[in-house]
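Consider this today:
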Amino acid sequence: MKAALGVLALAFGAGACVVGITSFLLGLRRNNDALLAVGRKCVAVLLVCSVAAVGIMEWALISHDFTIRYVAENNARSTPLLFTITGLWAALAGSILLWVLILSGYIGVTVRHFRKRASEPLVVWATIVMLGVALFFFLLVLGPANPFRLVAGGAPLDGRGPNPLLQNHPLMAFHPPMLYLGYVGFTVPFAFAMSSLITGSIGEGWLADTRRTTLIAWGFLSVGIILGAWWSYEVLGWGGYWAWDPVENASLLPWLTATAFIHSVMVQERRAMLRVWNLSLVIATFCLTILGTFLTRSGVVNSVHAFSQSSIGVWLLVFLGLCAGAGLALIAWRGDRLRAPGRIDSILSREAAFLGNNLLFVAFAFVVLLGTVFPLIAEAIQGKQLSVGEPYFNRMTVPLGLALLFLMAVAPALPWRAASGDVLKRRLLLPAWAGTSVMVLTLIFLDRSLPTALAFGLGAFAIAAIKRETFMAVKSRRSADKIGWMRATGRTLAGNPRRYGGLTVHVGVVLIAVAIAGSHTFGTKQEIRLAKGRSAEVAGYTFTYVGS
C-alpha cells in the first residue's frame, strides 16, 4: 500500500508540473489571469505531492516495510532511528526523492515571494523553467530512480541496512541535505536568467530578484562542503579532510562558479558591465550541479562517496546537454541586446580586480573539472583506466589560490573606475608591510617553503587590509555622529551589511586558506602496514591494529 501511495503522489506531482507549465504558457499568451492562477495552484499541489512522497518513504523506513526494495536494501531492524530516518538519502533513489522535495520547496517559496508580481512575464517564465526542471526530476523518480519499487519474490524478514560508512557519524543527518539545499537552490537564479533571455528583460533587474536565493544556496553549499571535510577528517581520511576525490570535486565546481558570480554581480549592478559573463556563470553553475549529480549518482567514477552503477546517468547527461544548449542558444539570440554600455576605465579599479577574481575562479574550476573528467574521457577513447591524483591538483590550484588571496586583499580597497597612487599608498601600504613581515618571519622561523610563506603572508595582507578598511569606516562614522566606538561599529556594520558581510566571509576564507597551507606543510603523513596485534608509532601516537 505504501508503495502505491508513494507512486501516486509522484504521478500527481508530475501531472501538476505539466498542468502548471501549460496554464502559465496559455495564461501568458492569452493574458488570462485565471490561467496564471491555476498555474500557481499547481505549484502548491506540487509541493504537497513531494512532501507526501517523502513522508510515505520515511513511514516505510521507520516501519521497516521490506516489501519496498529501497527499504530492504538500505534499512534493517537493527539500524538506529537516526540512520533509519537518514536512510532517505543513503542511496540513489531516495536522494533524488529528497532533491524533488527541496526543489518543490524552492519553487513554492519563490512563487510566494513574487506573488505581487505574479503576472509579470519575467516571473512567469522563471516559474515555467523551474517547473520544467521539477518535471525532469519527477520523471526520474517515476522511472529509473523509482524509490517505491517492490521486492521481487516476497519481502525478506530483515533488510541489509545502510552502508556502514553512512551510519557511523551524526553528520550523515546534515551533510547531504546541506549539499542538496545548495545544489537545488541554484535552480532559481538559473530560471530567472533563462527568463530574462526569453522575455528580453536584459538588464540588472533579474540580479536583484535572485540575489538572496543565490546567497542562500551558496551558503548551504559552503556549509555542506565544510561538513563533508569534517566528516572525512574524523572518519574517512585519517586526518585528511580533502583528497580531490571526484565527488568532492563535484561539489566544489559549482561553488567556484557561484562565488565568481556573486562577485561579478556587483560589477554589473554598479557599472552595467559583464552581462553575458554573468548569464554564462549562472547557467554554468546550474549545469555543474547537474554534472555533479551525474558523477555522484551514475556510478561512472570510483569514489567512497559515489553510488553504484545506474541507468540514471544517460538521463542526466541528456538533461545537462539540453540546459547548456538552451542557455547558449538564448545568449546567442539576445547577443545584440546584451552589449553592456559600461567598460573598465583602469586596471587599478575594483571592477578590474573583480574581473581578475572571476577569471581566476573560472580557471580554478576548469583545472578541477579537467582533472575530474579526464580519466573518464581517456577511458572512453582509449579504453584505459587512468587516475589523476593529488599532485596534479595541488600543482595547478596552489598558484591560483595564492593569486585569489592577493586579490582578496586588494579588491575591497580599490575604488570604482580608477585608483590614484595616493589612494593605493594610503589603503594598502600598511597591510602590505604586515603581509611581507609575516612572510619573512615564516621563511626564517617556521618553514622555507615559498608557497607556505606566501599563503601566510598574503593571508596577513588580506586580513590587515580588511581590518584597516573597517577601522577607517568606523572612525569616520564615530567622528560624523559624535558617538562612541561601540555604537559607531554597530552603525557602520548595519549601514552596509552586504559589504561587511562579504568582508567577514573573506576573513573566514583567509583563515581556511592559511589552515590548509599549515596542515600540508606541518602535518605528518606516513604509510605503514600492520599485522593483526602489531603496533607502530607515528608522530608521537601509537597505532595498534586489533583486527576488523
